[in-house]
Amino acid sequence: MNKPLGVLVGIVVVAGALNTAGAWYTGSKIEGVLQTSIEQTNQELAKQLQGTTTHGTIELVSIERNLYSSTAHYRLKIQDDKAGPDAKPVELLFVDNIEHGPLPWSRIKTFKWMPVMAVSNYSLEKTPFTEKWFAATKDQAPLKGQVTLGYDRSVDGHMELMALETQLDEHSTFSFSGMTMQAQTDADGQNLKAKGYMDHLKLNAITIENPPVTVELNGLTLASDLKKTDFGFYLGQNVMALSEGQLTYGVKQSVIKLKNFEYTDSASANGNLMSGRLAYNVGDITLDGKPVGSAQMVLTASSLDIPAMQALLQIYQNKFQPQADGTLPQTPLTPAEQVQMQLQVEKILAAKPQLALEKFTIKTANGESQLNVVMGLAKPTSFEQPPVDVTKQMLTALDAKLLLSKPMIADLSAVQAQLVGQTDPQAIAKMASMNSEMAGVMAVQTGLAKVEGNNILASLNYADGQVDLNGQKMSLEDFITAMSTRFGGVASQ
Question: Can you tell me the distance from the alpha carbon of 311 to that of 341, in angstroms, rounded to the nearest whole number?
Fold first, then answer.
């Protein structure tokens, strides 16, 4: 044997010995790692489901250890209290083929040579409860995935829901293209990144009493980039985008279609204070092939006291969360709970939060309407003062602007007429025009807005006890009196 070949063989032998030793070590530790991971998962499940009627737990049923791999079985139990005390929990069984590190074969053959603790290859098992699901996927495991666990306790996972087509009942069908999800976390799940994609979903439901209903979703994308806070929950960014959605319904089988829907949220914390932003956007809406318009909404909040909000949420979950039968609890707040609730509200107001509807826009073929509202809050010196004085101190600023397009009102009135079955074009046009003009007349009569050309305009500004309504300045007391007179008179007519 020549010297280079001998060196190469020596390296291979040493690497194989090290891998065997590493696999033995990993195999001896794997059960403890799994139990710790399951405990953490159950704790996180309990947190996420707190305040709901649903409970879930995961348990390790068995594990068979070998030198290079282990086989584990898990049970996922899901119980909904609404189902009643005698209802059995839903049980899903999973089998997991765990390849021991440091060099699992599935990574070697894909040229991933970085040592890892283990690679988990899990899949849903066939049971009497899941056999119909298996039948819909042609006896393939409907849910499967792979998780790579690093020695630094980082996790890199991939999950796949298989495509399926099934007959839900004698008349209804369901088809699904499948969905993939990928996620990565560092040690103890402090930082989480995830993304997923679904190509197509279609539900066609038909009943004897009602016309057919068809729901279709195409091109669904999900993405998250989150960081766990010291308060036990995640903050960061989430995105959900849908290329196209369609609803077919009614005797005439009307079709409502939307395109380019997007939802995004982001949140961050600075000490005990949280800021957040929610945005909704619908790029295009049509009814029976005719354009309706588009819409956009942006909501923001800042300086929200996190511990105080958590305390209020806990009181709500304990006292006001609906019970299993859907009814609200009848037990009133105790004096101590009332004091606690007021204390937390005061803490929230002391942080001087600001809430805003930054943008609410509806655009149709002939017009565009806009609304934005910004409001600042603060803690009053006492809630025992007269209501007007409490309001003056608690509401530090309010600024609202409205631009309402009469052509847009006419466009949406025409759509509403179509939805209720009106088919005469002349009647629809006449009703739409009348509704848009009526809106302008009512706005002027109430004194809340003015009309300029094709637009209904309104503005409201409040600061330091003074109100500016459409350029008319007055004290807060005079504003309250004016509104009471106007709307009290309208209500009494």
Answer: 8
